[in-house]
Write a structure and sequence with these properties.
With 368 residues, this protein is α/β, with parallel strands linked by helices. Helices cover 12% and strands 30% of the residues. The protein has two domains: 2-244, Metallo-dependent phosphatases (Purple Acid Phosphatase, chain A, domain 2); 273-364, Sandwich (Immunoglobulin-like).
């Protein structure tokens, strides 16, 4: 959090849960070693932690007691920083999307206090599980939670920062506005994506271990909030910046019901190239398409005439930013022989807009 009304330096640092992997004491010790290093955290910069589901994984200890003893911080916190209210809320258990009655009561009371004391200002709220069906990574299943939504729904000035899904913040759906604002803050380990949209076997895409991300939030003179997205692995900003505009009463929700009708486009004249022809298999290589935001993934199909014989979805690897490959390849196996095929590739953006497909020259597979 940075107030550029002052000297532009970071005023506070928030870590929204899963501060350990399994809630072990040695993991807290490692965490404290990192955050006590003045090369990482300047003197005087306050760090605020909260518990996520992973911090409850150690069934052999009182997880909440260990957290408080190690970090010397309460489970839930209300602080005021340079004239703005901040609320943090910890999860209550490792199973389910659990916020207990104490957490709900704390959030409700502090939201009321914040609106009374700061009626025209945003309220910054931090917790682990994203409100269900809000920002990218909050869909039903393992990620989104309804536990705090009914409380937040009465506060359009609430700006909620959350994690849990590990979905990359380069996707434009990572900010969402409806009754309040929700922002996905990415992750620093094992990034994930939608399992069924890209892969049926894993939520972890290619090169997922080369991704660390975070946000810098700026308070600007006109009352707006400016959010910077950072790829901290490559030390580069992900553009564009987002703006949560004032007045913070819901009337200026720029991202409410956001629909992008621009379709991805391939460069004119490009075609997929089919190579490594073998019995029942081949490789399809194609250039990346362009989009006004991002190309999310590709649908790669093998056609026998107009009939689809096989198909694979391939992530664009947009989360690699400047390291994103300029072309991608897909391996097909178990294809029939004695047929003539073409390969077709369609680019698909985050809002499911499809490009005009590109198609390869005809090819056949060798016979044994």
């Amino acid at each position: 959090m940075r107030n550029i009304l002052g000297n532009g330096r970071i005023d506070a640092f928030f870590v929204v849960g899963d501060i350990t992997d399994n809630g072990k004491e040695y993991e807290y010790d490692s965490l404290l070693k990192v955050f006590s290093d003045k090369k990482n955290i300047p003197v005087g910069l306050q760090v605020y932690f909260m518990m996520g589901n992973h911090d409850h994984h150690n069934k052999f200890v009182d997880a909440e007691k260990l957290y408080m003893n190690k970090l010397q911080q309460p489970l839930h916190q209300y602080v005021e920083i340079k004239g703005y209210p901040f609320i943090t809320v910890s999860t209550a258990a490792s199973d389910g999307h659990s916020f207990n009655n104490g957490a709900k009561k704390f959030l409700s009371e502090k939201l009321t206090i914040s609106t009374q004391k700061y009626p025209n200002k945003p309220i910054f709220v931090f917790f682990h599980y994203p409100p269900l069906n809000t920002c990218y990574g909050s869909a039903a299943g393992n990620w989104g939670s309804e536990a705090l939504t009914s409380i937040l729904a009465s506060y359009p000035q609430a700006v909620v920062f959350c994690g849990h899904s590990h979905f990359p913040i380069g996707d434009p759906r990572s900010i969402h506005q409806d009754k309040f604002t929700t922002v996905n803050d990415g992750s620093t380990n094992y990034t994930g994506v939608e399992k069924n949209e890209i892969s049926k076997t894993s939520i972890h895409p290619e090169n997922f271990d080369n991704i660390t991300e975070g946000l810098i939030v700026n308070l600007v003179p006109n009352g707006d909030i400016e959010i910077e997205r950072w790829d901290t692995f490559r030390n580069e900003e992900i553009l564009p910046r987002w703006t949560v505009a004032s007045p913070h009463d819901g009337s200026q929700f720029k991202y409410k019901n956001h629909i992008d009708n621009d379709t991805p486009k391939f460069i004119d004249g490009v075609k997929p190239v089919v190579s490594d022809l073998a019995v029942n298999s081949c490789v399809v290589t194609f250039p990346q398409a362009q989009d006004n935001e991002i190309v999310h993934h590709y649908l790669v199909e093998i056609l026998d005439g107009d009939a689809v014989i096989a198909s694979i979805k391939k992530c664009s690897q947009f989360y690699l930013n400047s390291w994103m490959p300029s072309e991608l390849s897909v391996h097909f196996s178990k294809l029939p022989v004695d047929k003539t095929f073409t390969a077709r590739v369609t680019a698909i953006d985050s809002y499911k807009n499809n490009s005009i497909a590109i198609q390869s020259e005809s090819f056949s597979l060798p016979i044994k």
